[in-house]
Amino acid sequence: MEAITLLFLATLAAAAVWAGGAYFFPFRDCRKCGGTGRKVRHLNRSHYALCPRCAGTGSVRRPGARLVHRTVFAIRSQSARARHEARERRAADRAAPDRPQTGHRARNY
Ligand SMILES: [Zn+2]
Fold first, then answer.
1. For residue range 6-64, what is the model confidence (pLDDT) as tens digits?
2. Which of 20-58 are b and which e, b meaning 16 or more Cβ less than 10 Å from the residue's Cβ?
3. Which residues surround the ion ligand 1 when the cut-off is CB under 5 Å?
């Protein structure tokens, strides 16, 4: 029982660490070109081409980073929508005729 709880917490902590790492450090060096962004053509060394995997940037997204960012974006946009709705509700309250006008619009500049 205790061991299972500890294992669960450890898994949770590892997942949190992994998600944080994927969020703050979503890129790693491209394995195909070693981070240079160039594809070396062995047959003709005088010509270089951009690495097809990283498109010349030298870094690729870590697996899972896209998922983490998408999740964070979904949570943030959801809370932004909630804030927006709360603001509209307050604006509707202000526009009610039985209340005095308050806020920056009623202020004299
Ligand atoms: Zn590359």
1. 999 999 999 999 889 888 888 999 988 888 888 876 665 566 788 888 888 889 988 88
2. eebeeebeeebeebebebebeeeeeeeeeeebeebebeb
3. 30, 32-33, 51, 53-54
39 CA to middle of ligand 1, Å? 7
User: Which pLDDT does position 77 carry in this prediction?
Assistant: 95
CA 28–ligand 1 middle distance (angstroms): 10
With a threshold of 0.70, does the pTM exceed it? no
Each domain of the chain, given as residue ranges in start order, spans 27-60, 63-96
Helices (H) and strands (E) in the chain, counts: 2, 4
pLDDT band for position 1 (cuts 50, 70, 90): low
d(CA 50, ligand 1 centre) in Å: 8
